[in-house]
């Protein structure tokens, strides 16, 4: 550890990682590729990874470090924002053309993630783009 590094004790967060909205988006090739994960409720808390699953795993570590640093600084930890009444995951059933399903399955396999995670990421990304342009 260098003289400029500070050892901050790990703090157990009041709310778990899963309680906070996190957004996983692809990074452009010029930004190094892979995926970035951000937390709208936690300013500056972010991480990345080569795959969606790796970005989420790294996001868990970033979340824990972010909470510990905030507590160390004496700053409050924001409560998770509730979006509507659905704080728990919900099941969505959607009919798809076979060709679209096949493309999604192939892309999920190529990216090393589950079909469910890929579809969730694509929906969140599309919604984010639409909200940004609205």
Description:
This is HicB-like antitoxin of toxin-antitoxin system domain-containing protein. The chain is mainly α and 134 residues long. Helices cover 40% and strands 9% of the residues. It is built from three helices and three strands; from the N terminus they run E-E-E-H-H-H. A three-stranded antiparallel sheet has the order 1-2-3. The mean pLDDT is 84.
Radius of gyration computed on alpha carbons:
17 Å
In whole angstroms, the N-to-C terminal distance is 47 Å
Which architecture name of the largest domain does CATH use? Answer: 2-Layer Sandwich
Question: Tell me, what's the shape?
Answer: elongated
Oligomer: single chain
Helix content: 40-55%
Report the count of strand segments.
Answer: 3
Summarize model confidence as the mean pLDDT.
84
- Major β-sheet profile: 3 strands, antiparallel
Overall domain count = 2
Q: Which CATH class of the largest domain applies here?
A: Alpha Beta
Q: If strands are numbered along the chain, what order do they take across the biggest sheet?
A: 1-2-3
Give the SSE order as H and E letters: EEEHHH
Annotation field: number of helices? 3
* CATH topology term of the largest domain: Double Stranded RNA Binding Domain
SS class? mainly alpha
Strand content of the residues, in percent?
Answer: 5-15%
Q: Identify low-pLDDT runs.
A: none
Pfam families: HicB, HicB_lk_antitox
Protein name: HicB-like antitoxin of toxin-antitoxin system domain-containing protein
GO biological process, one term: regulation of DNA-templated transcription
